[in-house]
């Protein structure tokens, strides 16, 4: 896998161009799990956090503002423009418009100062069949002082017809409810403004209907960030979360947790399930 080093200048305009390019190319993509995909690893050095944008992110997601360390989920926002460049590449086989975030795994080895400088690297690890289409796995790393301090692995689903049968996994008993949250219709637009993820399925009823949803959906990364803001995490931590059903906006959801497990429910439907585990010896639990 070849590294491609990028300049920090022009990152935000580049993200806008990536979304536009991805939107134009989406109708011509033919997703399948055995398709080719870009093998480039994009690297961006000297990344510093915009503290005003960070504070806006913290407010939208429910994190306390003004902390010395970045929220666990914030490096995902920093790496998102690189992921967009890869997923809008003409050789990436999944259509950017309508992609659904289905899971995320995050490892943080140490606290990340909000005033620090980081090197970000993003690559596409591979494609895999899913019962509802094809998934791509995107890996993001943040380094400081030459060491990996944070990493994530996200899966994104392009829905299309398959021959796979629905899964019949065993459901665990519901976790005890800790809080109920009323979500406004603007959550997708507010999170999109601070994260750069302006996928149309999150913005308005009209744009969501183009992809088969009657109302806009909350971003998966907003739902897990909101849950982690309520749950809390140790400094060295491994978090796994699955986005199992859409959170429709507006709506009311129940946040439930017990020990290291958490979930977000809409009525009887589990929308997000996850777990928080301690990370030791700079490795996985």
- How confident is the prediction overall: mean pLDDT? 89
**Structural class by SSE content:** alpha+beta
Name the overall outline.
globular
Main beta-sheet annotation: 11 strands, mixed
| Strand residue percentage | 25-35%
Order of helices and strands: EHEHHEEEEEHHHEEEE
Q: What is the number of beta strands?
A: 11
- List unreliable stretches of 5+ residues: 9-13
- Rg for CA atoms: 18 Å
Helicity, as a percent range: 10-25%
Within the largest sheet, what's the order of strands?
Answer: 1-2-4-5-6-3-8-11-10-9-7
Number of helices: 6
**How far from one another are the termini?**
28 Å
State the gist of this model.
With 285 residues, the protein is an alpha+beta fold.
What labels would you give this structure?
34% strand, 285 residues, alpha+beta
Give structural notes.
- Mean pLDDT is 89; it is low at 9-13.
- This protein has an eleven-stranded mixed beta sheet, with helices on one face.
- The chain is globular, with a radius of gyration of 18 Å.
- It has helices at 11-25, 51-61, 74-87, 187-195, 205-209, 220-231; strands at 3-6, 41-48, 100-108, 117-130, 133-144, 147-159, 177-183, 237-243, 251-258, 261-266, 269-278.
- It is of the alpha+beta class and 285 residues long.
- It is built from six helices and eleven strands.
């Amino acid at each position: 896998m070849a590294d491609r080093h990028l300049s920090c200048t022009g990152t935000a305009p580049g993200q806008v161009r990536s979304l536009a390019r991805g939107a134009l190319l989406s109708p011509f993509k033919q997703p399948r799990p055995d398709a080719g995909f870009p093998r480039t690893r994009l690297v961006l050095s000297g990344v510093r956090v915009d503290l005003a944008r960070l504070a806006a992110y913290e407010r939208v997601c429910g994190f306390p503002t003004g902390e010395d360390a970045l929220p666990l989920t914030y490096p995902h926002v920093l790496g998102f423009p690189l992921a967009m460049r890869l997923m809008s590449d003409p050789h990436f086989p999944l259509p950017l418009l309508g992609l659904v975030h289905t899971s995320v795994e995050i490892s943080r080895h140490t606290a990340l100062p909000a005033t620090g400088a980081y090197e970000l690297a993003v690559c596409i690890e591979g494609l895999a069949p899913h019962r509802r289409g094809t998934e791509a796995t995107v890996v993001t790393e943040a380094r400081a002082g030459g060491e990996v301090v944070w990493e994530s692995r996200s899966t994104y689903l392009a829905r299309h017809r398959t021959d796979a049968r629905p899964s019949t996994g065993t459901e665990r008993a519901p976790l005890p409810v800790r809080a109920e949250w009323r979500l406004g219709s603007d959550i997708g637009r507010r999170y999109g403004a601070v994260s750069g993820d302006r996928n149309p399925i999150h913005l308005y009823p009209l744009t969501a209907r183009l992809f088969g949803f009657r109302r806009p959906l909350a971003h998966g990364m907003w739902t897990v960030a909101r849950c982690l803001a309520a749950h809390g995490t140790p400094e060295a931590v491994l978090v796994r979360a699955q986005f199992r059903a859409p959170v429709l906006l507006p709506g009311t959801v129940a946040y439930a947790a017990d020990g290291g497990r958490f979930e977000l429910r809409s009525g009887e439907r589990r929308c997000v399930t996850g777990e928080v585990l301690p990370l030791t010896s700079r490795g996985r639990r």
